[in-house]
């Protein structure tokens, strides 16, 4: 397949004209770190956006940055860091998880997949930070939505559609997003040796407290052992982790308060700034599953359901490795036992009507065979199809990456 | 303000429609066709525009809503959903040939779920009632529009409403987890729920802020947060608006995101002080109210920093609330700013645009010039933290021509906002008020792309037509059809 390295808008326009004229599928990709996520795309050419780089605007006092979509997230983070700022949704890096290199993600990729790290519970998802998008629709027309200001309700919020549409609606060339100050102190309170049920209760108490917990995760002993950080792996026990951040006096005070709340749940340790940052980065990137190939699922459920969902999965005799983030709201499950459907039936069955599961890692065969993204109701599927049709009537952008049509044709 | 021409065929079958609608709803009184009774719905908060609906219906169940919409779709009747009618952009303005669908009876709290830190409520529940229901247990719902005592959560979602807490806690869109809604085809769908990040395309994200054009929201799941341990407000006065604006930027630049940061100009300060004796200094040109929340140590830490920053920016007054009563007093003036201004002028129009904060001095100066040009006074109250301006233009509707001048002045202010990199509306919505200005911000193609979304949900354009978009398109012409030289097919459909 031919790859075109995009360095200008004119090139995109040309490629779109070509694709529209001959009904060719185009695979849109940043650094390709997430190509293995979702259904394999039926494309005739690849648009490599990674050459479209550069910061167009950065005003730290206004908490806003605008940059080209091919810009590496790691570079953006480095620039923000110089000003004591950050991307508060903590974009994860699934590169190693999916078998590619680390630090490959681009802005376009991060916002198009709407993936967020552990701070999702407090700071929101990628979509909550996207303020404006410019680019092209699959109609071959330039397209702009949103703005550069924090508060904007002018017209439909199409940024939300772009976020999470995996490049099936539009090719983003410029993204404007909100940035936030970094706190000077980050601490992580750890509680060892609790079971999942106790962990869910502990995380609930923490998040329901006034202490503004920024992230909460639970790693069973098996998963903890795979985190390359002594405080986590060495004890050989399960660990509940709660992140507290803020100006030093506040973080210290809240950390002490949190220790008291958590005391009934087990022995306590505290990670300092450097170790905290390392731990949450490893957790956000699902480090316990790196280096393997087994099907890996990411489940979004009501936090209190996590225990029930895991029991339901295990009751089916499914052998799996898992850990929990977002205070219970996010469950990572890696299948150990063999199954033809990669565990789809068991996992989706366990979730029930509330929540969804995405296959983050699976062989190409598996990703063709099952639905990597949660199937939706027929009415929602129809709405999705019409939305896709409104943006990309000839189905040239990442055809089939998210859903198949009833007739088995790759659409959005 | 031009609205789509009423459809005479629809008007002609009004009696039949009333009879059929009475068959659908259990309570026949819930279908209102008497002119005097319809008066109650003739406008929303933008009272300069009034229109009686053809019929108003106040359903009680989702099944009724579904049947009403199915019926209206089949009969070719337009529908305008309505919450509390506090919209300030005419979003809930009825249509002469339309059914007004009032959601006031959907006022129950269905579930308080502390395990998942969320609540499930019906759309007609007021914003404040959500917080009131969980306050005693130490929780609250963060978005807090000033109208929170009256406005409904359904209306909040339709308008993506915000309030003083937006800076730190986000808008409605950042605090809604799920909805149930009915499409114009009468189909009931659920988007999201108690879990995070709805699956597939983010339909929940686009419904939020869609101003009642995509579907009727019938149930809402919102996130609730633990009430902060302490809250404190700081009152800081400056000899100029520029210095106040500069201070806001420096506070944020220093890494502090206050729970709220509001600014008032001299005009608003004086009006508010006269109205409710908040204890505001009267010898300043601009006043900031900075609210901090969190543990005491954090508030003290930040407060000290803010004091230093303010002093460096030339602040002449800085007072920190010593207790809850004093904090409330600081806010009383800000919260009463609108009615206070209302007392010194027979009428006023509240504008709502957002600008990049650094453009504040330029925008304030230009607004002063426009004020002289139009011969109308303007008072400024705004959400300083996020650049959302609320200029209040004072006028007297009894003086011929003043309303029109006020409208023109308002339009100039909004154009100015866009010119400096901002937007037409920060929280009140486009509605009919800013509809004809949409072209200032979007190209014709951008607007068409937005309308294609409308077509996905409501291909016949039956829900709330005439709002948001300056031109009504037929979905077919937004589809694959080729438009040559701007000559539009279907010349018969309403355009304005
Ligand atoms: C007695 C003792 C107890 C410890 N307990 C814990 C614990 O409970 N949890 C935990 O996570 N770590 C613990 N550590 C490890 C220590 O915190 C690490 O050195 C850690 O890298 C500090 O980084 P920080 O970012 O948390 O520093 P901060 O707590 O933010 O700052 C502490 C000071 O340490 C200095 N510092 C920061 N990083 C380094 C570094 N890499 N090398 C040398 N100096 C540095 C800085 O100058 C800074 O002023 C302990 C160390 C000691 C000696
Ligand atoms: C004094 C005052 C102060 C205000 N302050 C603020 C403020 O600080 N911040 C702010 O954002 N706004 C503010 N507003 C504006 C207004 O209160 C908000 O826009 C509010 O969200 C409207 O809610 P409502 O229930 O009154 O909706 P309505 O006015 O009844 O309707 C508004 C729009 O929502 C649609 N709609 C209503 N319910 C539904 C539903 N269930 N399904 C689908 N569509 C629906 C309507 O069709 C209409 O387009 C203020 C208004 C007033 C009068």
UniProtKB/TrEMBL annotation, chain A:
Domain FAD-binding PCMH-type: 1-182
Keyword Flavoprotein: yes
InterPro entries noted in UniProt: FAD-bd_PCMH (IPR016166), FAD-bd_PCMH-like_sf (IPR036318), FAD-bd_PCMH_sub2 (IPR016169), FAD-linked_Oxase-like_C (IPR016164), Oxid_FAD_bind_N (IPR006094)
Pfam families, alphabetized: FAD_binding_4 (PF01565)
Sorted UniProt keywords: FAD, Flavoprotein
Matches recorded under SUPFAM superfamilies: FAD-binding/transporter-associated domain-like, FAD-linked oxidases, C-terminal domain
Protein name: FAD-binding protein
Species, as recorded: Sneathiella marina
From TrEMBL, chain B:
Recorded coiled-coil stretches: none
Assigned keywords, A-Z: FAD, Flavoprotein, Oxidoreductase
Superkingdom to which the source organism belongs: Bacteria
Cofactor section: FAD
Flavoprotein listed as a keyword: yes
FAD-binding PCMH-type domain sequence ranges: 49-227
InterPro entries for the chain: FAD-bd_oxidored_4_C, FAD-bd_PCMH, FAD-bd_PCMH-like_sf, FAD-bd_PCMH_sub2, FAD-linked_Oxase-like_C, FAD-linked_OxidoTrans_Type4, Oxid_FAD_bind_N, Vanillyl_alc_oxidase_C-sub2
Keyword Oxidoreductase part of the UniProt annotation: yes
Name of the protein in question: FAD-binding protein
Classification lineage: Bacteria, Pseudomonadati, Pseudomonadota, Alphaproteobacteria, Sneathiellales
């Amino acid at each position: 397949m031919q790859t075109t390295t995009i360095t200008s808008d004119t090139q995109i326009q040309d490629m779109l004209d070509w694709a529209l004229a001959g009904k060719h599928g185009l695979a849109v990709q940043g650094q390709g770190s997430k190509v293995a996520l979702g259904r394999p795309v039926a494309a005739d050419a690849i648009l490599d956006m990674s050459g479209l780089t550069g910061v167009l605007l950065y005003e730290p006092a206004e908490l806003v940055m605008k940059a080209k979509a091919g810009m590496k997230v790691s570079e953006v983070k480095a620039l923000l860091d110089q000003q004591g700022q950050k991307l508060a949704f903590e974009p994860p890096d699934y590169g190693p998880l999916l078998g590619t290199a680390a630090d490959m993600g681009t802005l376009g990729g991060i916002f198009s997949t709407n993936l967020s790290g552990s701070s999702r519970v407090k700071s929101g998802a990628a979509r909550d930070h996207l303020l404006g998008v410019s680019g092209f629709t699959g109609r071959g027309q330039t397209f702009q939505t949103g703005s550069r200001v924090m508060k904007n309700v002018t017209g439909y919020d199409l940024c939300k559609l772009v976020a999470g549409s995996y490049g099936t609606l539009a090719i983003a060339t410029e993204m404007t997003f909100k940035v936030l100050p970094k706190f000077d102190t980050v601490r992580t309170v750890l509680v060892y040796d609790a079971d999942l049920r106790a962990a869910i209760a502990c995380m609930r108490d923490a998040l329901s407290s006034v202490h503004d917990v920024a992230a909460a995760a639970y790693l069973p002993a098996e998963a903890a052992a795979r985190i390359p950080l002594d405080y986590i792996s060495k004890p050989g026990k399960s660990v509940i982790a709660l992140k507290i951040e803020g100006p030093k006096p506040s973080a210290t005070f809240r950390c002490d308060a949190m220790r008291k709340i958590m005391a009934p749940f087990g022995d306590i340790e505290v990670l300092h700034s450097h170790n905290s940052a390392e731990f949450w980065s490893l957790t956000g990137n699902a480090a316990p599953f790196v280096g393997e190939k087994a099907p890996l699922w990411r489940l979004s459920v009501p936090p209190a359901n996590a225990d029930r969902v895991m029991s339901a999965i295990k009751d089916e005799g499914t052998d799996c490795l898992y850990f929990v983030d977002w205070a219970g709201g996010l469950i990572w499950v890696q299948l150990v036992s063999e199954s033809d459907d990669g565990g789809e039936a068991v996992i989706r069955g366990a979730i029930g009507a509330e929540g969804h599961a995405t296959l983050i890692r699976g062989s190409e065969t598996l990703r063709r065979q099952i639905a990597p993204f949660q199937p939706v109701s027929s009415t929602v599927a129809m709405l999705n199809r019409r939305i896709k049709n409104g943006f990309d009537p000839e189905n040239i952008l990442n055809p089939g990456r998210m859903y198949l049509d009833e007739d088995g044709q790759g659409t959005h | 303000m031009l609205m789509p021409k009423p459809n005479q065929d629809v008007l002609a079958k009004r009696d039949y429609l009333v009879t059929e609608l009475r068959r659908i709803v259990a309570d026949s009184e819930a279908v209102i066709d008497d002119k005097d009774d319809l008066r109650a719905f003739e406008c929303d908060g933008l009272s300069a525009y009034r229109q009686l609906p053809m019929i108003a219906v106040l359903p009680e169940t989702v099944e009724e809503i579904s049947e009403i919409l199915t019926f209206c779709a089949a009969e070719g009747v337009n529908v305008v959903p309505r919450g509390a009618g506090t919209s300030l952009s005419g979003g809930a303005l009825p249509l002469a040939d339309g059914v007004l669908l009032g959601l006031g009876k959907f006022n129950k709290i269905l579930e308080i779920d502390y395990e998942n830190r969320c609540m499930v409520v019906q759309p007609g529940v007021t914003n404040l009632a959500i917080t009131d229901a969980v306050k005693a247990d130490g929780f609250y719902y963060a978005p807090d529009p000033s109208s929170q005592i009256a406005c409904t959560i359904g209306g909040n979602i339709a308008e993506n409403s915000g309030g003083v807490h937006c800076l730190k806690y986000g808008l409605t869109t950042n605090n809604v987890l799920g909805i149930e809604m009915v499409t114009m085809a009468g189909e009931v769908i659920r988007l999201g729920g108690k879990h995070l990040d709805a699956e597939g395309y983010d339909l929940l994200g686009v419904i939020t802020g869609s101003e009642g054009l995509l579907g009727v929201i019938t149930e809402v799941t919102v996130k609730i947060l633990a009430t902060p341990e302490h809250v404190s407000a700081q009152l800081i006065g400056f000899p100029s608006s520029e210095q106040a604006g500069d201070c806001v930027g420096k506070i944020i630049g220093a890494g502090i995101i206050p729970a709220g940061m509001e600014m008032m100009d001299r005009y608003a300060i004086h009006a508010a002080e006269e109205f409710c004796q908040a204890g505001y200094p009267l010898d300043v040109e601009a006043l900031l109210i900075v609210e901090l929340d969190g543990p005491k140590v954090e508030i003290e830490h930040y407060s000290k920093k803010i004091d230093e920053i303010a002093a460096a920016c030339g602040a002449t007054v800085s007072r920190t609330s010593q207790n809850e009563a004093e904090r409330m007093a600081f806010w009383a003036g800000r919260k009463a700013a609108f009615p206070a201004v209302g007392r010194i002028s027979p009428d006023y129009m509240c504008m709502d645009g957002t600008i990049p904060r650094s453009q504040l001095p330029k925008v304030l100066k230009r607004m002063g010039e426009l004020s002289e040009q139009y011969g109308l006074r303007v008072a400024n109250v705004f959400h300083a933290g996020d650049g959302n301006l609320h200029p209040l233009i004072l006028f007297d509707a009894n003086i011929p021509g003043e309303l029109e001048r006020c409208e023109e002045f308002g339009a100039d202010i909004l154009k100015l906002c866009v010119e400096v990199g901002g937007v037409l509306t920060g929280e009140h919505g486009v509605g009919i008020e800013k509809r004809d200005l949409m072209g200032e911000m979007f190209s014709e193609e951008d607007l068409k792309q937005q309308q294609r979304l409308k077509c996905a949900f409501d291909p016949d354009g039956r829900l709330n037509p005439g709002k948001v978009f300056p031109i009504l398109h037929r979905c077919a012409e937004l589809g694959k059809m080729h438009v040559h030289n701007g000559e539009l097919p279907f010349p018969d459909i309403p355009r304005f």
